[in-house]
Amino acid sequence: MEPLIGLNRSPIECTFLSLHAPIWQDVLAQAVTGELLAAMNYTSLSEICDDPGEAADALEHAEGERGHAAAFAAEARKIGVDAVNNVDAKHWKRLREAFMRCIAKRDFIGCLIVQEIMLESFAVASYSRVGKVAPGTLGNTFAAIAAEEEEHIGHAMAILRAERALDPQRFDDKVYRLHLDVMTTLAQMLAKECKDGHCEVCHASCVKPSLSEVSLSAAQLRGASLQQYLKTLDALGIPGEVTLTWVAQLPV
Amino acid sequence: MGGSVASVSGRAPAVEVDFALIGHQESWRSAADVLAVLRGSERTALPDDEIRDILPWIPPRAVCHVEVGSNAGATARGLYIDSFIPPDRLGPAYVHENVARVRGAAACAINAGAKIVSLGGFSSILIEGNFDQLPEKHDTAFTTGNTLTVAFIVQGVKKMCALQGRNLPRATLLIVGATGDVGSGCARCLAPGVRCVQLCARNVERLRKLAVELKADGVQVEIATDLQQFSAEADVVICAASLASPSLLLGRIAADAIVCDAGYPKNLSPTAEMPGAKVFFGGLGQVAGGLSFAPDFRGVLNRHPFPDVVHGCLLEGMALALERRFEPFSHGRGFITEERVQEIEAIAARHGICLAPLYNADGPLEDELHCHAEWSRAYEVLPRLGLPRDYRSDSGQRA
Q1: In A, which residues are within 8 Å of B59 by CB distance?
Q2: Which residues of chain B neighbour A231 with C-beta distances below 8 Å?
Q3: Which of A97, B25, B62, B132 suits a disulfide with B30, CB 3.0-4.6 Å?
Q4: CB of B360 within 8 A of CB of B281?
């Protein structure tokens, strides 16, 4: 791949990015994989929507997520690396399977909970953190996509709040069941160390120990993601003491 | 609690929230214990480094339901809301972050429909009595809880003097953190009954103002911003300073001084060597009518060597809820008077909320249980009989 570092970047940015290119490569690979998985999820969601308007919205979201993946891939090319995606990597595959179980049940609300409340909380929080420390267009891209993902959540929240209002206990029980399935996997992904082997997305060894070199840390990304998740559940109206227990029981 | 049936998500049926208690954990050990309860005994406890990583990210939220019973037969239900201020971030560098956390906790209380909210620990210090810093209050009243804290500190000092056979009217009383809401309240209640009062705080202007107020009542007062500046050694000391960590070294006090550490976090440095001093933790009360938590946080949220012991600031909210007086009983800074202290003491005692047995870091103090029984009986019975407070004087020092 042709190294493109230097285009529209300051010398300091170039030095920083080239020095840490292998780290950004893995960060971007996770982001591209997550966006492509989201695109696949929205496409699947469109197939179970009874309302043509909702189906069109889901397809539009899928297209948006593919656009995000393309933007991250372009950022990788700018620093001369290839952000290889792997939606079949073990954690991502499990997340996809959890979503597809909701699809199999034609559970539209369950799909929204998995994608918008759980996966997008993780995306918004981690992209925001990366956006704050990554230099130049790389940081701008992460920050801009974090803002767009937050808008997605806002749209879904209105639907989910209305659903919860019909039967809060039933709704909370559903969120909890999905939490056990999805957030357990996300918590393993977000653990400070990958204790159960290679994640199958990082291009070499695990990137987590190196994140401090770019002013990030796995602990910080996990903390920010869990905080975003708790705040999103608060906004849904699920009692804080209940969601605190859910999060406290996640693996570390 | 209340026979509620939890759903699969752990969600209990909604109940009316009479009170909310806003607090935070004093140490990483207590934070670890709270998370261990939430995590459940079937899961391995979180390692300390993980707790330090995770806790600062937890947004303010309810941790458990609380139910308090009254000797008079009433019951009040509430929530304990933790602001999740990390124990090592109480210092000035984190003031804005921590005020935001207290505001977040207050918003939780309002959203839960709490009728009265007690601001425990550093929460009231951060807000400094400026309740307009809190979210729009709707029908929720906020109280710092400082008046009942002062009541229990004053009772504790008198009780300790009685236990030790000390003559309080002949004593020199030192108050560290004297211009704070709690310190100045203690000064107003105790200064008229001692030989001399020494007031120590950082702000000279506030010290002078308080000294003028006390001198007008004929009290002998000394003020200083440095503990070494006082002319005599104190016999009785109240530590009520707003310190981010236990770091106070008292230095010049009488070798056998009675020392009440009323800080949260504690004021006295663990390295403070006072071998002859009689140190006890002040400002604590005990609920006779029963206190329960769901989930069961007994001994975790209230880590004391006796059951149902809670800080006075939190008990004030519970007592007012039991009394159905949903009002900002303690607010602002420097408004705690002896009359207000007597009023909240009477309310608390009516519901069986009395001074807790005295203890310190080494455990319960000598002959504690026996003395406590007598003391509690006096405080429970006398207000119901309508007797004035001076009848309850344990050593005659307020005659």
Answers
A1: 227, 230-231, 234, 240
A2: 59
A3: B25
A4: yes
Domain that residue A152 falls in: 11-248
Tokens of B323: 């009394």
Series of mean pLDDT values for 10-residue runs along chain B (399 residues): 52 80 92 94 92 96 97 95 94 90 93 93 75 75 95 97 94 95 97 96 96 95 93 93 84 90 87 87 96 91 90 97 96 93 97 96 71 47 35 26
- Residue A31 domain flag: yes
pTM: 0.87
Q: Chain B residues with CB inside 8 Å of A177's CB?
A: 8
Nearest CA in chain A to B15: A239
Residue positions counted in chain B: 399
> Which of A173, A243, A246 is nearest residue B7 as measured by Cβ atoms?
A173
Residues 6+ apart with CB under 8 A from B19: B66, B76, B77, B78, B79, B114, B115, B116, B117, B118, B317, B318, B320, B321
CATH at A93: 1.20.1260.10
User: How many CB pairs below 8 Å do chains A and B form together?
Assistant: 79
Sequence-ordered list of residues with C-beta below 8 angstroms from that of B215, at least 6 positions apart, any chain: B221
Answer whether A173 sits within 8 Å of B46, measured CB to CB: no
Residue A6 covered by a domain: no
Instruction: Tell me, yes or no, whether A3 lies in a domain.
Output: no
What's the total number of domains in chain A? 1
Q: In the structure encoding, which two tokens stand for residue A75, read together?
A: 């950022």
